[in-house]
């Protein structure tokens, strides 16, 4: 979406313009579905619920959208990401995750080199459901802009120029942020397979 | 060469990340079309200028949920359904359309059960309320779920049945059940304050004064709801706006959106499961006050049969029975899928921390005023015992530290070892808390025999740990009374592969 269209939609949303909302919806409903589906897997009912929650929450707060704080997509995906995080908290995916971790432990090979993209991962592993679970969990832990970048670049195959438009930043910034996103993903993936604690806690 | 290497890395990254496409679904266009209408209605409802149609004067002054205390919050939950009924009554005389509000009133006459969700702006988890009415339309039972944002701290569940209210607070280490007649009475009084007969009189007065306006939209498609928008004066002199969605088939209100309420936030109420078959479990907590008292009464005798340094989980279950929950860091686990470290939660706030199938500590925490006696250590200190009495029994502390919380007072250490606060191997003292600072995990350890006052920057909270009769114990005090007491193992945890 070009900057002018984006700005017009933003202004329309602030005024409560129906057409602006429809434009936003038409542009992003499918991408939001796709990305949510990637993060939560094949449960289409769950995906539909999350997409619905995302757009209803967006509809409630659309009037307060501030274009100076980020693009429409970034705003929308921030809402979606929150819904996905909530989904994972409620779903308690420990059993599935535990199986996936166990599967990972049984694998032979330079596993950390695979994660660091220093060696090729065997095709049968790339095709496995367990890997999908681990990648999803790791991705779901990342900030929304990292998720957007990684999915756009490596799953949708978008060039940096196109992503920079979506994120409202320069190509150089996209590349730089991508490097940080990759690093964060690898760290999250390693944490996912090792089950390292992350949450803060206070006890008395 | 570098560019080629980068290309390889990119390809590998792409292959790895594309794993998320396995099993992912293509967009359901039928669903998205439906959602387009729904979200557009939502967008317009939340936009003050949207949905302009014929206006009629009608009085509505309703939203009073100013959530400041737990009591108000529970009471607020109890009045939501009254608000719905009220809305219907108020709108009755003022909507000249094919839709007759009497139909809704009649539909509500047979109301026996409803599930309500209150979504507050900016909060992802709704406040929930389940209500069962008797044939005289009087409250028979209700259940309220108040998420953490509504109560501060952990979430709260309240169940009101047969004139009694029971509350369950759930945290990693808190489980309190109490009888709360006073609270129940306040809630019921709160409901009385929203008695339709009383409020309708006030509304009639407002109607006469012409202080509210409504618009209504009745779509031709029976699958779309009737949308009623009302603007009304608020107590703070602002104008509030609410939108009701009425199911055309059942004539029952399915949603109400408060664009501007007196608490300054937007609220969206959703009503579902109208007159559904009641699941008895909804109106029970899973544990009664009597269960809790019996458990706590026998706890010392049972613990005396366990050795804290040698007991395994099976020994604990054998003596105390199955816990109510297996929990750790806010998550509940199933017995057959437990992590390495977790908490076994029993009635009365009694917990046992487990690591590598071994007991790390046991004890309990109870909220002031909710004490259920039973757990005593070493022979006279219990929840509620004054701080002075504790030191009379144990001897005075070697030192008093006040207002800790920085590195300067030398009780904060950086540590990258795991086991969280359950780490007693190579311990530097008791790990009171942990948090992240710029990506680095910081743990706060407390030494034995020092009375820490104002701990964690909470002025009224104190902490003291010591060794007594060869047993390692620690206490937390609030307002100079014991609110938590735990015994923990003296021997290192055995490493098990």
Protein model, in words:
The complex is a heterodimer of chains A (204) and B (497). Chain A is mainly α and 204 residues long. Chain A folds into two domains: 1-91, RNA polymerase sigma factor, region 2, helix turn helix motif (Rna Polymerase Sigma Factor, Chain: A), CATH 1.10.1740; 92-197, Arc Repressor Mutant, subunit A (Orthogonal Bundle), CATH 1.10.10. Helix content of chain A is 75%, strand content 1%. Chain A is built from eleven helices and one strand. Chain A has helices at residues 3-15, 18-40, 44-61, 72-91, 94-106, 111-115, 123-126, 129-140, 144-155, 160-167, 171-194; one strand at 201-202. In chain A, helix 1 packs across helix 2 (18-40). Chain A is globular and about 60 Å long. The N and C termini of chain A lie far apart (52 Å). Residues 196-204 of chain A have low confidence and may be disordered. By secondary structure, chain B is α+β, with helices and mostly antiparallel strands. Chain B has two domains: 41-283, outer membrane lipoprotein receptor (LolB), chain A (Clam); 289-488, no CATH class. Chain B is 25% helix and 31% strand. Chain B has eleven helices and 25 strands. In chain B, the strands form three sheets. Chain B has a twelve-stranded antiparallel β-sheet with strand order 1-8-9-10-11-12-2-3-4-5-6-7. In chain B, strand 3 (127-133) and strand 4 form a beta hairpin. In chain B, helix 3 crosses helix 4, helix 3 runs parallel beside helix 6 (181-193) and helix 3 (70-92) crosses helix 7 (196-209). Residues 49-97, 171-179, 190-204 and 405-428 of chain B have low confidence and may be disordered. The chains are: A mainly alpha (204), B alpha+beta (497). At the A-B interface, helix 2, helix 3, helix 4, helix 5 and helix 8 of A face helix 1, helix 2, strand 14 and strand 20 of B. Strand 1 of chain A pairs antiparallel with strand 20 of chain B.
